[in-house]
Amino acid sequence: MRKLLNQLKRYYSAYMLIGQYYGWRNHGAAVPNLSRLQAISGQSPRQTATFSATLQARNLISIETLQADRRQKILRPAESLIREVGRSCAAFVQAYDLVAGSALALPFEQDAGVLGEMIFLSAARVQGGGAVIAEFPTVLRLAGYDSGYPLLVALVLSRYRRAAGEEGISLTQGALAERFQVSESHVGNVLGHMRQARALLACGPQELGVTEELVDEFEDWCAAEMAHYADLAQRAMAYPESCHP
């Protein structure tokens, strides 16, 4: 499942699917069916239909009939999908908790419905004002590749480890391909884009690093996400009917 969602368009589609379900369930929004998802998914209608079928085949969503109108088919996300899509959202809230001394992330561990409600609030904000990631062009471009964002995180993590005097993770193409279960040529394509963007440094014969500019952009992106989700986490917890996905 993680590999399926490690690409921005597919992740965004799943994000919007969860958002539209909780918008309907908790806030009286339109029925969360395939046609509505196709209008907001960021993929073509055909890609969205194929993606939804893939999620259904993997038991990550269920197709349910609306009792009030049996012609309507609801796309209902499984708890496993909510938790996987919300994993990075919850991680940003956990990071905020460490800085602020709060405990906003605790309800997510107890109830996936609170996480689903937060995703709805975020999806609504994104539709109204754009995604947070749009302000960070290099992070955005890398997230568009399969496993591009995890590759970026691995590069930044290795830099942090070296700066702390710890052993960095292996950043050869082979090691990265094995780590993220993609081909070496795919890793090479992502790294090639980073080289063109002048975002890579050579740290040894086979080791790579990221520039200070990219680290700054990545950290600014993380700070923006922490603020975004911490605000929405407080609102999600205040909603009395958010429990039970």
Summarize the biggest pleated sheet. 2 strands, antiparallel
- What pattern of helices and strands is seen along the backbone? HHHHEEHHHHHHHHEEH
The main sheet orders its strands as: 1-2
Helix proportion: 55-70%
**Form type:** globular
- How much of the polypeptide forms β-strand, as a percent range? 5-15%
Query: Radius of gyration over alpha carbons?
Result: 19 Å
- Total count of strands: 4
Q: Note the gap between the termini.
A: 19 Å
Outline the structure in words.
There is one protein chain. The chain is mainly α and 245 residues long. The chain is 65% helix and 9% strand. The strands form 2 sheets. Strands 1-2 form a two-stranded antiparallel sheet. The chain has a two-stranded antiparallel sheet with strand order 3-4. A hairpin with a 2-residue loop joins strand 1 and strand 2. Helix 6 packs across helix 13. The longest helix has 27 residues. The two termini are 19 Å apart. The model has no long low-confidence stretch (mean pLDDT 88).
